[in-house]
Amino acid sequence: MKRTAYAIIGVLILCVMLFPVYWMVNASLQPSGNTLTAGFLPLHPTFAGYKRALDEQGGNLVTSMIIAAGTVVLSLAIATPCAYALSQFRSRWVSIGLLAILISQMIPGIVIANALYTAYERIGLLNSIPGLILANCSSGIPFAILILRSFMLSLPPSLVEAARVDGAGLFRAFVAIVLPISKNSLITAGLFSFLFSWSDFLFALTLTTKGGVRPVTLGIYQYLGTQVQNWNAVMATAVLSAIPAIVLLVAAQKYIAAGAIGGAVK
């Protein structure tokens, strides 16, 4: 009886949490107009909102995808060797380094954005995709280092030592042994880096002053001011922007679970 009650409560909580998502999809299929007047079910669905969203926000979706992919590649390229080094060194300086990484995660995003704006203005990285990739890496790299190091601490040193005995250098042993074994944690860290970048609004708003480079989060924000009578297009854009994250989360679900607990037990 207790389990049944808990299950019912859990389903109710889940329904409440997912209702905004349902209403977003429902409103995107409604005829043009205010969402408050929309029916509870899309009895006469129309895809006009999606057509308009793709026509007007398709470029922003592509921009966000490029920025997110670049953030994942750069974050993993920097975080993976750093995490491995921090897992192998046995020094009190490692603890200080990890503390610095944790502190960097606590700095408010607006502080980082303002500092980057001043620097970008001097070196010409404002309104550029590389500038947004570097900015998003400020969140992705520290988080990836913490996840990857936790897993790499559990790697048996004998595997790398055996490769070294067979004649492999440090770099070759790292690429041929450590990276394949760390696949789950790499996917987990990469996915979170993608989500950080894909959902970023603060850096996009601060570091872009022109319309040439505009991620979809900023596109939706600016869309609201001009499409108050066409909420189906706004909601359709929100649905389209949620699809990549949903697909990646579903596809990488088993890797996320394995990567998250991979370093919990040696």
Automatic annotation (TrEMBL):
It is found in: Cell membrane. It is a multi-pass membrane protein. Keywords: Cell membrane, Membrane, Transmembrane, Transmembrane helix, Transport. InterPro entries: BP-dep_ABC_trans_perm, MetI-like, MetI-like_sf. It comes from the Bacteria. Belongs to the binding-protein-dependent transport system permease family. The chain crosses the membrane at residues 5-25, 61-86, 93-117, 129-148, 169-196, 231-252. It comes from Kribbella hippodromi. This is Carbohydrate ABC transporter permease. CDD domains: TM_PBP2. Pfam families: BPD_transp_1 (PF00528). Residues 61-252 form the ABC transmembrane type-1 domain.
